[in-house]
Amino acid sequence: MGSLKIKEELIEEEEESKEGILYVNGVRKVLTDGFAHFTLLDYLRETGLTGTKLGCGEGGCGACTVMVSYYDRIFNKCLHYAVNACLAPLYSVEGMHVITVEGIGNRRNGLHPVQDSLARAHGSQCGFCTPGFIMSMYALLRSTKTPPNESEIEEALGGNLCRCTGYRPIVDAFRVFAKTDDSLYSNATSQRIEGENICPSTGKPCSCGSKTVNSDAVKACDSKYEPLSYSDIDGSTYKERELIFPPELVSRKSTFLNLSGFGGLKWYRPLTLKKLLELKAKFPETKLLVGNSEVGIEMRLKKMQYTVLISITQIRNVASVGGNICTASPISDLNPLWMAARAEFQIIDCKGNIRTVQAEKFFLGYRKVDLRSDEILLSIFLPWTRSYEFVKEFKQAHRREDDIAIVNAGIRVFLEETGKDWVVSDASVAYGGVAPLSLLAKNTKEFLIGKKWNYELLQGALRVLQSDVLLKEGAPGGMVEFRNSLTLSFFFKFYLWVSHEIGKNSSNKEGIPQSHVSAIQPFHRPPVIGSQDYEIVKQGTSVGSPEVHLSSKLQVTGEAEYADDIGMPPNGLHAALVLSKKPHAKILSIDDSQAKSSPGFAGIFYAKDVPGDNHIGPVIDDEELFASEFVTCVGQVIGVVVADTHENSKLAARKVHVEYEELQPILTIQEAIDAKSFHPNTEKCLSKGNVELCFESGQCDKIIDGEVQVGGQEHFYLEPMSSYIWTMDGGNEVQMISSTQAPQKNQKYVAHVLGLPMSKVVCKTKRIGGGFGGKETRSAFLSAAASVPSFLLNKPVKITLDRDVDMMITGQRHSFLGKYKVGFTKEGKVLALDLELYNNAGNSLDLSLAILERAMFHSDNVYEIPNVRVVGRVCFTNLPSNTAFRGFGGPQGMLITENWIQRIAIELKKSPVEIREVNFQGEGSVLHYGQEVQHCTLAPLWNELKVSSDYINARKDVDEFNRCNRWKKRGIAMIPTKFGISFTTKLMNQAGALVNIYTDGTVLVTHGGVEMGQGLHTKVAQVAASAFKIPLSSVFISETSTDKVPNASPTAASASSDMYGAAVLDACEQLMARMDPIASKHNFTSFAELVRECYVQRIDLSAHGFFITPEIGFDWASGKGIPFRYFTYGAAFAEVEIDTLTGDFHTRTSNLIMDLGHSINPAIDVGQIEGAFIQGLGWVALEELKWGDSAHKWIPPGCLYTCGPGTYKIPSMNDVPFKFSVSLLKGHPNVKAIHSSKAVGEPPFFLASSVFFAIKDGIMAARAETGHDEWFPLDSPATPERIRMACLDEFTEHLITSTFRPKLSV
């Protein structure tokens, strides 16, 4: 590997400097002393460059990505890197050039091709993650001399997370830059204006062509933009639009930096090894920084305090080999490999003495290494491998890419040929993730040496390993059985690999069976191939057209404003919450004396200080704004602190000391059932037919019963909760800007706690960076908490939650427990279902009862069941209150259903598809709650999917693959869905809108819905444009505000386009009716001319529109009614491949088809389908919440372990199906909604369960290898742990039984 030693002769030591130089977007900045505690992100946002976002604060989401350029004096060239600004210390980029999203293009001066391509390809929905993607792609292009290939592009974007789009349109948008011939992209604008649409997936004209583009809108947006060819953006040649590397930084010599920061923090940047060693001698406990990827997280998230930091090298992509080694993380991917590969570390002390330590002896304990306080790691020596010396790395993580290991390994053997045998001359086996440090399996090593390389060696080594590397029950990190199995699986894979290599390279062949070869083949992910198939049914000037998101240009340039981007006035304060640290306790005392003496402190407020009522709640007031006597969950708000900065407010809040008397908590559904801990008045029942009579009558050939556990899910909207509140008119009025799906709820809560009438409180929301239900109710209590200090101090207050706090206190998707009893015939026809449903509400009711009710409504999915009884209960537990999440309980109910459907198939040895088809509902079916199915499109949709997926041949191909491969298995599944559209609470099905026409012919629309990335504003504007027969560019929607449209329901339940579109249409029709008499008397040449004449004639050009959803209503007393206006149908096919030895999986194909009637905007609807599917994929296969409960005793009781992207894994770009197809059913207009369209936000989410059941299909093939063909439970999410442990084999048989069920927080 060579030496990492700094070449001192190339750097001359200079006098120390007390200030630095930094260029930002070509502008010279002087970095004064006193900001060593600042990150680059802090600095950028403080200076008004808010395009760079704070998403997580730990470098895990990519929202803060910028490009950093510096001049490398060794290679005499300028280097460009994408960097996470949230981790990069400000002074670490001294002498460099930082380019943010604002620096590469904007709407006024023209978009950069990267920005333009993403906007055109519908690659930005909520827009919060968009600047990060833009800068990652831009940095890739600037750093390469030749166009990157598609795989390099996807790899460059691997560190950027998106929760909205499903990634496919982002890949398509950037794929154009991978072309060697760029001419198609260069001419894209002119071709689009002429009506020719270039497909970003293929680079060829689309078949839909001119039908998909509103040329007026394109001209209006792009009149100032001329696209550039690839040669203009690679950075090798300076063009007008590209920022050059500042000449001053080329000629300027680096200086030794000696700077300071808050709290006495000292920052040094030595330029020579000699100076570094002097500083180390002076400050032996100092931290050395390279990328700050470890220390930054320690300081920010773990609240560790360091007084001296030494920056030792120029920036790379925010990480270093040396830092990784010396951090001594027990899950380091590299350290086991260093140990196995015989690496040696050179260590130097402050006197220049050098010693050498073998890597396998360097790691002493948890985060401890053989390095004295006066020493540093100087270099690494990695010896060459010898002939027939094999070294291999292994890793299994929760997510395939951009994730830390669960278990990893480095294994080496050196073989010598002795006659006809291969004998192990030397070996090394090292593991990570199985001990407090990277662990050398010494006994295994000793066993291997001198043995013949054959199957007996393998069996013996595995026996030794079982005792050599053994995790015991209760080990930190949990998953003990899984981690133990991985140590064996990795060694087995190594044995297969070495044997295969010997077989290829030697006449003395050990070889392995052909069926085993796939187990050792490296995984190469192919580029994503996406296809979208829909018809365009144009209605008027805009409805039906696949227009781009109206804010897309703002979002790709970073100009779109979110709540936390709003600038604060000089007297503004920042709020932080004082939170409970116990799940259930009585508050004995609160000591806030240290908080009051904290820097920048401005006030602290408790329950006693609330001017109005301290009790709040969206349905019933069963929550306290500030806990007064008892706390009922970890993270419950006890008080609020305000200070002059965000960091100072958090520091003061941490200094508040609360004394508790702990009480017994209830943390799981089962504990709640055992203790009869239910929220009052929440038992519900739906029934049809007579379940008991059916079971007893003998009609059922078989009766089965079982339990299904369904895990929760974190919303992980990229924009954390944020609210900005200020008083007006001497405190007589209160206004706020909130990141919320329900401005009216924020208005109501704030008025309630302040004792003000709602007419004096205004809440505004321009856009939010994702919501998914999480910002429907839980955003309101944060606004209420911040409103108290704002009102009492008469000062503006902003509260923005850090990601870990947001995840800990704002609730998630409900976990569910379903207990079923099902009777059916030998043909598979279901006759009776008796179902008990329980959901984990947490410590307040919130929306949990309505969520349970929808789960009960959807517990039939699409199946005709003559006899049904569904009973539901809402469990009270000592966890933070769970809340709405896309699907609102429906997906949990349907997942439980599909579990017992599949079990019927296994019991009868039939295909699950056959069982589904024989039980399908049809036109006129009466559901278990009394609603009749009308306009059912399930059959044509299902049949079309079977044909497009070539299901019969796919089944044959998978079976053949499984027959030929022992350790890799494939599975397929087809899953239908039916999702009811309406709020199940009747009063919420109302919507208002205000439409104003101005004398220049432009239209301003305001409605009660919130734009959160789903394209609501775009669709509503299209409705208005078509109503007035004007271009879409003439319609503008500014914001959602409670003083424009009062009493609006939350933007939820997928019904917003239906309701607000209809309300806007109502207002437009009123206006047209007023204008028609004028229009009929004159022949106007334009809408603007007509409007001016109406103004002259004193026609009112403003109208309020209103809509109520007709023909709905449900009576829970009788259990009958019509809760839904209509149903959105869909179906999905999925094929997966699993690694039975590790639990790793990938989705090879996903084919989705939805019935959306005549889509108002098919491009936006396709984006919603793809985004919902990938989010659903996270729910069923990746995202696991781990709480401190009986299943996870290594976590403190009631605490959330998975509270950031480091521990909680949402899907990344690498989780997108290889082939990702979306189709909209053609020829089925919906007569029950505006413009014959259908709702789309939530219905596609459940289609991701096709991946879950395809995984289970693959597991069944694996279990069949060992004679296990019986039904088995697979809980959701199907993480690598659950997949691996369900694939029974010789490596798991001594660890678990065939009925083993990995632990899950429910």
Structural commentary:
Helices cover 28% and strands 22% of the residues. The longest helix has 26 residues. The two termini are 48 Å apart. The N terminus is likely disordered.
Keywords, separated by commas or semicolons:
1306 residues, alpha+beta, eight-stranded mixed beta sheet, five-stranded mixed beta sheet, 36 helices
SSE layout:
Blueprint: E1 16-17, E2 20-24, E3 27-31, H1 40-46, E4 65-72, E5 77-84, E6 97-99, H2 113-120, H3 130-143, H4 150-156, H5 168-175, H6 183-186, H7 188-193, H8 215-222, H9 247-251, E7 256-260, E8 266-269, H10 273-282, E9 287-289, H11 295-300, E10 308-311, H12 321-327, H13 335-340, E11 344-349, E12 354-358, H14 359-362, E13 363-365, E14 368-369, E15 375-381, E16 389-397, E17 405-418, E18 421-432, E19 439-440, H15 442-448, H16 455-468, H17 480-505, E20 529-533, H18 552-556, E21 573-579, E22 585-591, H19 593-596, E23 601-605, E24 615-616, E25 623-624, E26 630-631, E27 637-643, H20 646-654, E28 657-662, H21 669-675, E29 684-688, H22 691-697, E30 702-710, E31 722-728, E32 733-738, H23 743-754, E33 761-765, H24 778-793, E34 797-800, H25 803-809, E35 816-824, E36 830-842, H26 848-857, E37 867-876, H27 890-908, H28 912-918, H29 938-948, H30 951-964, E38 968-981, E39 990-997, E40 1003-1007, H31 1016-1028, E41 1035-1037, E42 1040-1041, H32 1056-1081, H33 1087-1096, E43 1102-1108, E44 1113-1115, E45 1120-1122, E46 1126-1139, E47 1145-1154, ...
Parallel strand pairs: 1-7, 2-6, 8-10, 9-10, 20-48, 21-34, 32-33, 36-37, 40-41, 47-48
Antiparallel strand pairs: 2-3, 4-5, 4-6, 7-8, 11-12, 11-15, 13-14, 16-17, 17-18, 18-19, 21-27, 22-26, 22-28, 23-27, 24-25, 29-37, 30-35, 31-32, 31-34, 33-42, 35-36, 38-46, 39-40, 39-43, 44-45, 46-47
Helix pairs in contact: 2-5, 15-16, 16-17, 17-36, 23-24, 26-27, 27-28, 31-32
